[in-house]
Amino acid sequence: MRSGARAAIVSAVFAAMVVSVAGCGSGQDDSSGSQDGANASGDEKNTVKKVKTGPPSAAEVKTTARTFLAAWSAGETAKAAALTDDSDAATAALSGYRKKAHIDKVELNPGQASGAKVPFAVNAQIAYSGESVPWTYESALSVTRDTKTGKPVVDWQPSVVHPKLGEGDTLKTGESEAPPIKAVDRDGTELSATDHPTLKTVLSGLRERYGKKAGGKAGVETFIARGKGSKSPDETLKVLSKGTPGTLKTTIDAKLQATAEQQVSKRSKASVVAVKPSTGEILAVANSPASGFNTALQGSYAPGSTMKVITAATLIDKGLAGYGKAHPCPKYFSYGGWKFQNDKKFEIKNGTFEQSFARSCNTAFISQAGKLKDDDLTKEARDVFGIGLNWQTGVPTFDGAVPVQSAASKAASLIGQGGVRMNPLNMASVSATASTGTFRQPYLVAPSVDNRTLAKASKTMKSSTKDQLRKLMNLTATSGTAAQAMSGMSGDFGAKTGSAEVDNQEKPNGWFTAYNGDLAAAGVVPEGGHGGDTAGPIVSALLRAGG
């Protein structure tokens, strides 16, 4: 399935350049001695040729690039491949360019080199079923030095053929494997990648899975067929003939989706998801940048203190904590050989559990690690919150991970570090479960469309645990770390902030998860800092818009 059916048309016109073939090699080997190779003593001497080292010169870069492009353009695959550092891979890719992608003619015009990198313009003709269609795009190659021969060669990468090609990918032209779809929101409004660019990956995933079921007719396209194991869907690069799209209804709310996109666009990196707690329907999915990896649904980040929603439920279930009960919050607490501390080393003397939750006291949770079994947190996350089950949303997702850990790692997991991994979809679901007491698996397409079975948690939350958890999250949203972002919110609401430390990262990843009535949302701002200040405004904007 391809992410969009529009080819990238090169806007800049490259001046035609004459591609010339320059001589290769460094000349004949020198030899010493007489013509017959004998000296006065009759001994034979052979001089070993030195292999040239160091980066290629500007002249070598220019000559190698032009010679390679000339051979590729002329259809001399073997010659072009021999000018690379991986002739087998280059041969397969360049042969496939002609045979599988059906490129009949191609003109390759090199641009100005920048160091060892040479950009070039591609003007190709795709010939398929008697039709000839022009196709233009830009790519680039880099020249390196062969360590064995010392000769300058093209550093072979699949992206030389097309910048979007990766390892294992194949460029093809033919009838699309999945017919196009016309995705619509819950009210019938069309959802296009043009109007909602951050949905491009989602729409591609929907087409790949539901194109045939939606009743459309396939067209002819030049596309990237992703290799096995790739998390990305197939991608259309050029449409030769349009197919007939089938209509697919989704759970997205177009207005809320627009708000989500607007909010994340304020940050260079941010992701957010909104769900309907009573049903599990996904109402909005947005990422910044809009193109690229779908962090909102497939990301895998330590959730930081937003994990304390699940940890608090665990402690309450085990009788280790409770709303209104005294609870320790020292500056430091050591466990498993690690010394943990609170933000800015604060402490709450003679405090209660709700105070520790609202202020996000790390040591209040770490101090209970020794009273928990290694798998207690894992079971609570899976059996009550549905984390780590096989979610069937309708598109590829990462469904969270709370592995069984021991010692210091177990303690770190309690505050959303260690091996715990989540994304905004998972954490939006956590708030949804906290608000209703029942896990309802998020989904984008109704399960009746393809008769798939949604994941179910084996337990519902205990009534007393749910009541206390909701009070904890409401207190956090009204007078705790989430109060600023949730200021002025009305109705039945609650929230939790998080800041996840990452090695070699100056600022932590900022997290925020919250609910208001029948709407729950969560967001992450990588390297953003405190969640209340960064992800908080994004999430609260969705809650206000959907209220």
How does this model look, in words?
The protein contains 14 helices and 16 strands. The longest helix is centred in the last third of the chain and has 17 residues. It has a 5-stranded antiparallel beta sheet. The N terminus is likely disordered. The two termini are 35 Å apart. Strand 14 and strand 15 form a beta hairpin. By secondary structure, it is of the alpha+beta class. Helix 5 runs antiparallel to helix 14 and helix 7 packs across helix 13.
Q: Which segments are poorly predicted (pLDDT under 50) over 5 or more consecutive residues?
A: 1-45
Topology order in helix (H) and strand (E) letters: HHHEEEEEEHEEEHEEHHEEHHHHHHEEEH
Could you describe the largest sheet, including whether it forms a barrel?
A: 5 strands, antiparallel
Mean pLDDT: 91
Total number of helices: 14
Number of strands: 16
The first-to-last residue Cα distance is 35 Å
Strand order of the largest sheet: 11-10-16-15-14
Shape, principal axes of CA atoms? globular
Structural class: alpha+beta
Rounded to an integer in angstroms, the radius of gyration calculated over CA atoms is 30 Å
Strand content: 15-25%
Helix content: 25-40%
